[in-house]
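From the methods appendix. Each design record in this collection lists the tokenized structure first, followed by the designed amino acid sequence. Records were kept in a plain field format so they could be parsed without special tools. The example shown here is representative of the layout used throughout.

RECORD:
FOLD TOKENS (449 positions):
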């Protein structure tokens, strides 16, 4: 990676961390502190916890497409301003209803697609996976950091203080985007990074992608469902908010180690069995939570089991989506995936709030646990995922038709899938890396033979 790529990756990762911290820091505290509002109700708490997910889900793809027309940085800046406005509304709120409004506004700053597209624009094709990996690691890191920092911060500045800190962090991102993030010097083909509207409807019904998309929806439903109950359980056991990290930290560290062990076994076990084990861990832990957990060590053990399964799926589902997506459609596939992901957070908050309103919170956990175990039987399609590489090649049709070029590329050894985009003068290839000769492919694509 050159200096531009490193600067772009690091600065965009920081933008992502600060933004996701703001979304997630209220997750482990809102269920406890929301009771201070005069219009408190469990349903409103659920909407406040997961409300951002609905606007994120609705605007994720449109904002990404808009960045292709108006430019990446203007859309990112507008999204950050919306996010800061939502944080300020929630910070000034004197009722839980206005906190919900603030959370919906926070979610309206749906800049994930634009950020990823800008990351693609400032990186060369060979280095783009590294840039994306740095940002991906930052996203995962932000969740764990938020879970640890949220309760500590809430103890000192309260819930409204967290929202104001979030607003300040969003505003601090603005000079970072304007001055630190490089201006695009190497435009990535749209299909690599952005959703293409014409692809969306076709990919929604793709059987394997649908399984993976519903999986991430369910996964984020579960994490939201859990954090609607978990802070209250810890408070009932005598732990103040500023002490919750003492439980979270060792559990998260132990779960990451267990997740790493399961990932090392995946090449032997296969995707289907590994994913099945992860869903079994989630289902078992939720069924355990649905009973009365009296002992702290039992609660910690169930948390460890839950986060082992959660971490594994959260890390691997995006990779499987990327592998399954047709050539040249990865941007669209990942945009749809993110939409399902955020919608799951909204569903989790809404379902948990409704269950608490009806005084059956443990029933929602029991049903979720059974659903996880049943979902294992839907994973047969994951057997068809492969370890593949992707190439974006410049094309020169010359006297050839698109069909002739596609046929010539398809005859090369190792080529699995081809998408030609004549308007952009590129060909997207999905290949088996071991048997594919990229130099020969470039010669065919550029009409040098």
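DESIGN:
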């Amino acid at each position: 990676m050159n200096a531009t790529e490193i600067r772009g990756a690091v600065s965009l990762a920081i933008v992502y961390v600060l933004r996701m911290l703001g979304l997630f820091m209220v997750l482990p505290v809102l269920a406890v502190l929301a009771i201070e509002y005069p219009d408190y109700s469990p349903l409103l708490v659920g909407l406040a916890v997961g409300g951002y997910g609905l606007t994120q889900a609705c605007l994720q793809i449109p904002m990404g497409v808009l960045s292709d027309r108006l430019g990446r940085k203007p859309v990112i800046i507008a999204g950050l301003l919306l996010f800061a406005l939502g944080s300020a509304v929630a910070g000034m709120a004197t009722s839980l209803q206005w906190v919900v409004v603030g959370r919906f506004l926070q979610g309206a700053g749906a800049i994930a697609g634009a950020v990823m597209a800008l990351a693609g624009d400032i990186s060369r094709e060979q280095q783009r996976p590294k840039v994306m990996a740095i940002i991906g690691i930052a996203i995962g890191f932000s969740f764990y950091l938020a879970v640890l920092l949220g309760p500590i911060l809430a103890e000192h500045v309260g819930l409204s203080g967290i929202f104001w800190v979030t607003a300040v962090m969003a505003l601090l991102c603005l000079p970072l985007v304007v001055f630190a993030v490089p201006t695009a010097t190497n435009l990535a083909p749209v299909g690599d990074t952005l959703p293409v509207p014409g692809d969306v409807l076709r990919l929604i019904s793709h059987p394997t992608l649908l399984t993976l998309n519903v999986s991430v929806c369910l996964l984020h439903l579960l994490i939201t469902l859990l954090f609607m109950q978990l802070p209250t359980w810890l408070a009932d056991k005598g732990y103040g908010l500023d002490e919750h990290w003492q439980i979270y930290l060792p559990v998260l560290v132990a779960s990451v180690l267990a997740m790493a062990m399961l990932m090392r076994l995946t090449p032997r076990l296969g995707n289907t069995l590994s994913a099945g084990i992860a869903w079994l861990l989630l289902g078992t832990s939720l069924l355990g939570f649905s009973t009365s957990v009296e002992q702290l060590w039992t609660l910690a053990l169930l948390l460890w089991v839950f986060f082992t399964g959660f971490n594994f799926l959260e890390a691997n589902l995006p990779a499987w989506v990327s592998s399954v997506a047709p050539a040249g459609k990865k941007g669209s596939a990942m945009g749809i995936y993110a939409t399902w992901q955020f919608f799951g957070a909204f569903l989790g908050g809404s379902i948990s709030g409704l269950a608490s309103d009806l005084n059956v919170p443990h029933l929602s956990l029991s049903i979720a646990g059974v659903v996880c175990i049943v979902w294992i039987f839907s994973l047969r399609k994951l057997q068809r995922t492969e370890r593949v590489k992707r190439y974006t090649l410049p094309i020169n049709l010359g006297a050839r038709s698109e069909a002739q070029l596609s046929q010539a590329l398809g005859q090369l050894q190792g080529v699995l899938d081809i998408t030609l985009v004549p308007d952009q003068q590129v060909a997207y290839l999905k290949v088996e890396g071991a048997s594919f000769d990229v130099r020969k492919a470039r010669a065919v694509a550029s009409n040098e033979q």
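APPENDIX NOTE: The chain has a mean pLDDT of 86.
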